[in-house]
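Form 12-C: Joint structure prediction
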Amino acid sequence: MIMAKPKKAEEIISRVKDFSRVLVAGCKGCVAICEAGGQKEVEVLASAMRIHFSQIGKRIEIDEVSLSRQCDKEYLQELADSIDSYDAVISLACGAGVQFLTEMYGEKPVFPGVDTCFIGVTEEQGVWSERCQACGNCMLGETGGICPITRCSKRMLNGPCGGSENGKCEISLLVGRDVACGWHLIYERLKKLGELERFRRPSEDKDWTASRDGGPRQIIRKDVRP
Amino acid sequence: MRLSYPTNLRIVKVPCTGRVAAIHLLRAIEKGADGVFIAGCMEGDCHYQEGNLRAKKRVTYIRGLLESIGVDRERVAMYNLSAGMGPRFAEIAQEMTDKIRQLGPLVKSTNAGKEVVA
Amino acid sequence: MSATTPSRLEKIIAAGHLAVTSECGPPRNGDPEVVSRKAELLRNHVDAINVTDNQTAVVRQCSLASCIRIKLLGLEPVLQMVTRDRNRIAIQSDLLGATSFGVHNILCLTGDHQRFGDHPTSANVFDMDSTRLIQTVRMMRDEGRLLGGHQMEEGRPQMFIGAAENPFADPFEIRVLRLAKKVAAGAQFIQTQCIYNMEKFKLWMKQVRDEGLHEKVAVLAGITPIKTVGMAKYMKNKVPGIDVPEAVIKRIAGVPKENQAEEGIKLCLEQIEELKEEEGIMGFHIMAIEWEEKVPEIVERAGLFPRPAVNGSE
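Section 2 - Result
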């Protein structure tokens, strides 16, 4: 799922301080699960904003809504009747949701309320980590189900660099937490699977056209289109 | 025991302080309270294991949030005491009231000044 | 092994001499004198001079320009190239530029992560890793082809291809597999991470020999003299992939501060002596970090001077 983290309230406030009616729009998809932009977070942000503005004597009306998703038109459509009564929208959806909302309601200023971070998993409550960079060309079948593009800080394709120590990536020293060496994981996993031969084979150059490097991506499937 | 404590307090009873969500603390302030404190059980004595510890985390979070929006963090607090500590409750209520009075009303223009305890 | 490129380093190794290389770190400014000065210090005492490529991700004068400068002084450079900062277009372009100036040695590296350096917020590239860089250079040299398929009629790189290996990184058992992969990709010489843990290094060399790799690739042992006990501790604790055993730190700490530098030199001379006997060691890569002036002395005291002349080197 898409992981996000809340932006600082003061940043959001500074964006909308000159409007008089503001809608805080949450999303009940990914960002709700990672507790960054769901209904709960909408309530807290909106309440904090009301407290702030009333304390400084500003009359700004702040309303709340949470949509099932902001990455589908049919759910965004739910705002069609009310959107005109707002001067600005703060969307707590991921970057995709924020943009889709912007596209649907072209005249409204829309501001992001979260920082969209990565595609990842919930390791434990309150701990989310990255697992996929959406390179568009999945090679997990070659690497024992562990992604070197995501899990290796240098996205190496031929094994660990010289900075791996005790199974930890060299950046661990800098980021203040243990980051597992992706290639250490891959090696251990291939060993377990009895597939170390895969490791011996030098890789080909990665084709990055399906990744960010190839420009904005789109999937068109004739079989699914109406 | 007939203990007196400030009359500006409004008590909201909850089965366990673990029930108090971040939004409840904010709502109290939004609705006019100038301060909120949670009176939870002693740490380690929660009937539901860790309800009071969760409440503590939420208080910490909300204090940080308030500070970031220009509201004094001291307006929200967490205290731990047992049901048998009546005098301590009165003391805390007084202490909190004094602190909030010192800070003054959150919204200067209104003279509403309440305190809520959960 | 017989030499196939104009590289002097390759010829020295092919002739069976113990090779000596050293390195020179370019300055963090555009001063033209620094590299020249450092290179002149090494002129008569080493066979080739590595020029680091923005090492530890700190911006410095570029490796290629510095290599050209060294070449113009009549010395032999080893172009270090990291894949951190260049995509395959820039990599090949730089290789062609190096070729046009007669740079005949390359050391293929992935590079330290940019978060270590002075621009931790920058983007990185990592279009390919060191192994693929090795393959790329070999393909350009041997097949005269660019990655995109373009066939070069003339002006192919004539490069002796090197790689780095860290015998002390984890998992240990993967290191020799990694080396085998680099050798298969086309690496002809290896410069190792600086060696302090001799026991572990010899264990690694044994595995190298067991795989028969010592016959396919020239291993140059990495030697870095320790200047102070502070430096030893720093490397132990702060530099990823460097293994400084407690005994080494104790030894340096055991002498008065003013004698620590000499003790560090003695230690590295002992290491060189010991490694000369190790089967498969074809030379030494002496990295005196910001202490280049000590290299001639080390080379002389290690009995590696004078450097042999080889026929046909430029």
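Section 3 - Comments
The first strand of chain C starts at residue 19 and ends at 24. Chain C has one domain: 8-226+278-301.
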